[in-house]
Design a protein that fits this description.
With 262 residues, the protein is mostly beta strands. The chain contains one helix and 14 strands. A hairpin with a 2-residue loop joins strand 11 and strand 12 (232-245).
């Protein structure tokens, strides 16, 4: 089941925002995992800085995720999202990562791996940030991630992830992500639950609903995946933001399809 979970875990663990598309799994060399995802997100309260206001917004996102195994210990990741909020729509911020396994140890009960990744997110179109419902802040970030994951022989796993985000455009901001995840992957299904904290240092206060001045949030969610065949499956996920700064208290549902090629 491990290879079947690779793209699922990458795509869902990193569905937008802080987590980034980096998981504790790697595809085999020469193999390519592809996921197509749709997400519906809605909030009725938004924090402008620390001030909560009653503002309602619905966002739809369609995305394509790809991870290609370069070797037994490295892979290349590409993510392309398309967003629409009312009449405002377009390609938003893509992600490109190089991922590599730096440590691996196996025992009779399972295995422990440490995986690093470096990459960037950047605007894929000249979408406007001046409209009433912008789809993003047109920010460029340099990102680093480190993941420690223990996989038991019974299919259960525990995962912790952290790193650093450096926004280089339109201004300089630094942020720290922390993600905890517990899950199970077997021959019949995959399920996980996760908790994420993301903190932007020296963030300002938004004047519109963009997160453009730097966001902080606490979010939790989960995922359920069903493998139809060895090379194809579908998933359903949910996430809720509970508190934060320059962020909407949104609920998000996402579903998608996964293919393994090669």
């Amino acid at each position: 089941m491990k290879r079947g979970l690779t793209v699922l875990f990458c795509c869902l663990a990193g569905w937008l925002f802080a987590q980034g598309p980096v998981s504790g799994f790697l595809p085999d060399a020469g193999k390519t995992d592809i996921a197509v995802t749709y997400a519906y997100e809605h909030f009725s309260k938004y924090y402008f800085g620390a001030q909560k206001q009653e503002i309602e917004q619905t966002m739809h996102t369609a995305s394509v995720f790809l991870e290609h195994g370069l070797s037994a210990k490295s892979s290349l990741i590409l993510s392309v999202p398309y967003l629409w909020i009312g009449e405002t729509r377009g390609l938003q911020d893509g992600a490109l990562f190089l991922k590599f396994k730096s440590y691996y140890k196996e025992d009779t009960n399972g295995n422990l791996s440490v995986i690093g990744a470096v990459g960037a997110t950047f605007p894929l179109s000249q979408y406007s940030t001046e409209v009433s419902n912008p789809i993003g802040a047109r920010a460029t970030l340099l990102q680093g991630r480190i993941v420690a994951q223990y996989n038991s022989v019974f299919g259960a796993f525990a995962h912790v992830q952290t790193g650093l985000d450096v926004r280089v455009s339109p201004d300089n901001l630094y942020a720290l992500p922390i993600v905890f995840r517990l899950g199970y992957g077997g021959s019949w299904f995959y399920a996980d639950g996760w908790l994420e904290y993301y903190h932007t240092f020296n963030a300002g206060s938004d004047i519109s609903v963009t997160g453009g001045s730097g966001s902080t949030w606490l979010r939790a969610g989960g995922t359920l995946y069903y493998p139809v065949t060895d090379r194809f499956g579908g998933f359903l996920g949910f996430a809720q933001i509970f508190s934060g700064r320059n962020i909407g208290l949104s609920s998000r549902w996402n579903l998608g399809l996964v293919w393994k090629l090669g």
